Amino acid sequence: MRDALSSRCSAQCPLERTRYDQMQTIYIDDPAWQTTFQHLVAPQHDEWLPGLLLRCDEVNGWGSRTTLAHLLRPGPEKFHRCWRTGTPNLIVIPHSSLNLDYLAQLLAVSTSALLGTTYHAELARIYDTAKPLPRYLNPSFSFRVCPACLVEARLLRRTLTLPHITFCPQHQVAFVGTCQCGTALQLFHQQALPFTCHTCGLHWAHLPQIKASPEHIAWEQKFLSWYEVFLSRGTPLMVRYALQLIDASPLVPPFGTRSSAWKRNSLGALADSLVKRGRAPQDLITWMERVSRL
Which residue ranges make up each domain of the chain? Predict the structure, then answer.
């Protein structure tokens, strides 16, 4: 595969290889020529890993799933079990599910930059584990896109994976999970071009942009505020304080604060409980200060 890939690169671009996003040129006498793709892409701000893979397919003129298939081909069967669906749940990279070091080499970027296209590091910190699971954030993930993000930058943001968020925070338009032909969108499909419906061929950027109401924006902003707090600086101790704050509310049944209860509930469920109880991040800060003085 590598020899064929190198031959194709030499035939199509004998003098230089282009890095999209950073406009970096790799000349043919550079050793990187033999270890990277012809056209390279680098992670955009808050980009989700599947979008990066699809952009790599697109700039190289490949069909959907080609980059992913190339990554899976060198590895043993254990690297394949998470990829038997057209919409894998890539909120984190499960242990031994994908060789990010190999992908980093092919794209000439750091492994840490690729890991940053998931919520792996954030959930590992919050749940105090080296092997976070997708269910820690969103156990019922379904794929959808923001058409406006695709128009601007061919961008699939990590925000797409957050539970209870149905509108793009940047463009305030509805996430779309179904094509106008009625087909559910799939991230990767061997019979489609990148970012297109595998049934009718419609590009996802051409899906309708439905504006959110101010009330809906305000409601989802409450969830986003909690996600920002937990994903940016959450720890097991902070989660336990949040559970105590929930249980302190007399309006609804307690969430449960047994020693390991917080590990059995997703971050999405935690945010949902806090929002429904009318709690805001400032309440958590006040509660933590109050408990620390006891």
Answer: 2-136, 214-292
